Structures
1.
Amino acid sequence: MEGVIAGVDSGPEGVRLTIDSPGGAEPRVVLVVPPGTEVLVERADGATSPGGAAELVAGARVVARHAGAAMRSLPPQYHATQIRILRGS
Amino acid sequence: MRYTRSIPVAVLGLMLTAACDSSELVSPDPSAVDPVGPKVQLRTPDDEFARAAREEAPGFAGFYLDEDGTPVVRLVDTRKSAAAQRYLAPHFAAVRTGHHRGAARQPIIRGAAFDFAQLKGWADRLEPMLTRSDVFLIDVDERENRVMVGVQDAGATAAVRAEAARLGMPAAALHVQTQPRPQVRASLRDRQTVLNGGIQIAFGQYLCTLGFTATRVSTGAPVSVTNAHCTGTQYASDGIAIYQNTVAAGNQIGNEVADRGMWACAGAGTSCRQADAAYISNNGTRTTGRGGIARTNWATGANAGTTIIGEFDIIGRYTGTLPVGSYLDKTGRTSGSTYGQVTNSCVTIGVLRCQDISKVWSEGGDSGSPVYVYIGGAGTAENDVQLHGVMWGGPGTDYTTTYSSRLSGIEQDLGALSNLCRAAYGC
């Protein structure tokens, strides 16, 4: 899943990222990011380094892996398992 | 033309506006003012046809279009059709369009026992019967040349016939038929006065579906059941406000009162839940539709639409083992009443134990939908279902497949429920 972070909410279960993917099958989804989820920062040259929740900010472009099952609220919610923040691409 | 008083006045007004665009308001009497607004007389096309039968085309008894669009004119004296055909000429021209573009110009003339003014007069005099809750509609039936009255049952049939006899109406001029009670074509997404399963609920930025209503045995309090992820925090009770249909002042129906964290599960030693479910309190602002699930048209493998056409009646809990191949149904605010077969029974999906996977169509917003087994039957049993649980998800954007939690798992996680079924069924 790829898109741009449109909003960030923090709660007891972790961070919730609202992701906009215009033109995608689901134009807006929510990624639930439990504490401990792997966050990576990927530079334009493809090199990656560990990141953190502080880098999950509105406007960031992200690629996420998730648990597969969509929770069918509107917008749908997914449990993230890994998030890559794309920098300079 | 039909009249009914079994639906709200505002809706009736809309129906009349839509269905009778040739209606006109005549003779407004400024002195006749009631608390609602100025009283005016509504003139319908049937009033005009009755006038024509009295003044322009004696013996005219109405007209309709045959299957192929050919006009059929009913006349008391078929030898005197010239006046009626002159009067109806603009009507014939108006209907010879669209699907009936190629219809015959020459009308068929058929005899009739009663002219339109007689039938309209009798229909008007029967209209006070509509104040009864079991009399639904009155129609001057042009095709059958009689007054048709739609009623609930044999008791209402007898009452209408007795009134018609008292009015001196010939028996041949009246046809009374039983039919379902008229219902407003509301959407699952509309604001509802009654909380039934399948209708839209909202919290924060999210939309979901109300699963079903019940009583929480531990407290005796009424609750609604939906998904845990349809509350502020999945798998924790956070008291978040829940609304129906949208997050707006006056729409709150309650707060989350029961959710829980994980169990220490046997086997792999991991934590788990048995249902993606939460209980929502009832703040008393809406009526609880005990044992009711909103019903739309049916679909399998596709979105069924969201127009409400009736209610399913929960008559029991599903107590079977749900073998693969069984049919499940659901009603949700996005894709309506859909059904499909179980492909995997009692599956572990992530932290959720003993879930079911089925070919029930579901989309974003359907989370929390009641899942049930259709029983059906003759007559009023046609809407009978057994409650099985709530749906919560599916494999990404593959909407042909649905994951659901069982009622037994919901109760094991969050506590026993009662008053799930229609009152007569005691469950």
Note: Chain A has a mean pLDDT of 93.
2.
Amino acid sequence: MSDTGTTFADLAATCLEHLGREEAFLDATLDSLRRVRAAVVRNDLPGLAAALGRQAELARESDAVRAARARLRERAAAALGVAAGAVTLRLLAERVAGEEGRRLLDRREALRRRAEEVERFNQANAALVRQLLGLNSELLRWLTGGQTAGEGYGRTGAYQEGVCGPLLSAQG
Amino acid sequence: MSSFGIGLSALRASQLAMGTVGQNLANANTPGYHRQVVQFGDRPPDFIGGLEIGTGVQVEDIHRQRSDLLEKAVTQNTADAAGTAAALDASRQIEAEFTPGSGTLDALLENFFNNLQQLASQPADLAQRRVVLGSAAALAGQFNTVAGDLDRMRDGLDQQIGQAVADANSLAAQIAEQNRLIQAQEARGAQANDARDQRDQLVNQLAQLVDVRTVEQDGQLTVLAAGVPLVVGGTSGTLAFAKDSQGNATVTVPGSAQAQNVTGGKLAGLLQVRNQTLGDFRGRLDALAQELARRVDGVQAAGLGLSGPLTFAPGTRAVSSATIPLAQAGTALPVQAGTLYVSVTNQATGQRTLTAVNLDPAAQSLRQVAAALSAVPNLQAVVNPQNNTLQILAAPGFAFDFAGRLPTQPAASALTGTTVPTLGGVYTGPANDTYTFRVVGSGTVGVTPGLQLQVLNGAGSPVASLNVGPGYTPGTSLQAANGVTVALAAGTANAGDSFTTPVVAQPDTAGLLPALGLGSFFTGSTASTLAVNPDLLNNPQLLAASRTGDSGDNTNLQAMVNLRDGRFLAGGTQTFGDFYAAMVGDIGTQVKQLDQRQTTQQALGQSLAAQQQSVSGVDPNEELVNLMQYQRSFQAAAKYIDVVNTTLNDLFSIIGVTTG
């Protein structure tokens, strides 16, 4: 086996290991999204708080997974001789011969399906939460007499300070 | 069901939930509002390929937080408290009328008797007589004032009762309207929580007026008020205010004279005070005025004024008919079987007769009484046909009185000798009696040894034995017994000779004179009609201070003063002062009891309100905190959605999938 072959074989093994981590993370994310959704649709405030606690953990884990992914891309880019942004699993699989390459393609396909499911669920949750935020903000604005209750995180993702009206202010 | 569909159902549910929170907050201070709670439930799942697929959430119910038992307890307490408050308010007004103090009845009563007492020390003093009459007029006026106040209070209560009945009818109509509204809303499958709250509120308002029982069936409330089904579904009836044959205020159903038994609410309190407390105190006030008039008039009629016996006495109290027995003729004051002693004086000679007129009100009409009095020599009694009063006139040259004075000559004698007896003095014995004077021995008055005059009472017992033999100067008055004197003129007396005379302590045991207002101190006989006889006010000399006719005699005045300590009321157990004090005590006790009951009911009401608030009340802080927590949670969820998006974008780039 040439150095290059050894390099791609090691890279494929590392990649498969990483993809296992990615799948596990997506499973956990999907589970968390389902829990949030269930709590939201049932107005289950304690359940929502618990689900959000888990989400915070997953957000931290997300950073770690992304960092590992970035390192893998850098390493693959060097092996493939392409820019890091151009590295894909398919490109890597084409360079890995035989069984390893097919396994890599199979894992890629499984990961794609999981990611698409997570995305679909995330989009559904996004729509739901956006609507509820709007409703709640309107309600708070009406109840407190404030100009706006603030949505916290706006369309740009930047945090906005909420403005509470006289009722809330008076009640401290 | 797509995930998008699941989202829509959740959105609808959450929108309803938040709307309900808003509704709760907006009505946090609305009386009668019950906190509303959304009850969620899973939508029926889809089954695809043997797998159960959730289809989201739905709102199953928005129900009011309420406890039927608690609501009924609140309604009952509302009715009880309203009844007590109404009774307490009215009772306090009555209490104010009887509270002792300057110018009140008890003070004026005491003042009247004190002035009489002062007059007794100088009975001929005209100025003091005017003082007595002035204090009597003030006393009578205060009776009139209190009676008028109580009567106005009764009229005011009648108005309040009528208004409460009208209000109850209006509320019944509104409850029926809510029943119709609820039925219509729920038939459309809509929630009628607000209408139900309003209906509950109306029922509680009705309970403030009258005792209420409710029965709910199929969403429709049947309301029984005072035992009457006042609201049945969408139909309401009415109650009516009426008065029964005794003048009591009642609540009836229109078209029926049957009084409904009102056991709660303002109406119960008003009716209780109107018909019982007020009626009782009005009756007791009349009883006090009547007994005062009866007793004072009885003494006044049995005495003599400074101008001596009367030649004319007009009755001031009428009967309903002059031809039916007095007992049935509605005399203002009670008459009983007894004897009226009438003295008739020959104004020229001073000779005086004393005649007993027996009276039986069960048998004698006013006309028959007049006839019996007219049978007394030199006296005529007539019935004034215009007003059914009795008038007594003396024959010219004669005058009459009812002081029971001894006749100047014995009423009956069986004397065979030549001596002539003369009676004198003032009888001071405690009861009416008949004295018989019997000669013991025979001979000449003042001469024959052993000649005596024995005095026997009506029971035949000797009360005195007088020497009229040697040592007795004929014509000299001898003390017989109890203030009665006797003198025998020169002449002879024989053993067994006798003469008799009635001796009178109570000249009118029948009570005829006050009953007919003859020679009376007062006119009128009730608290509202009592007044000092204007003849007395015009001529204070007529105030009867004497039983003898002597200007310095205060015997009758003293008898009038002694009335203060007489126990004539409450079955002979209470003086005038005691009777009034009992009235003051009773209304004070009633007010105190009502006050205590109100305190208890208020405490219970506060406790029930607190319990009701814990079940049904809206805590704005809690609701707002929930909303804020939702808001923060949604914001956190939104932030994570961004995180997931970023992660996925990065992941898709390595997977080689283009995202959009």
Note: Residues 1-6 of chain B have pLDDT under 50 and may be disordered.
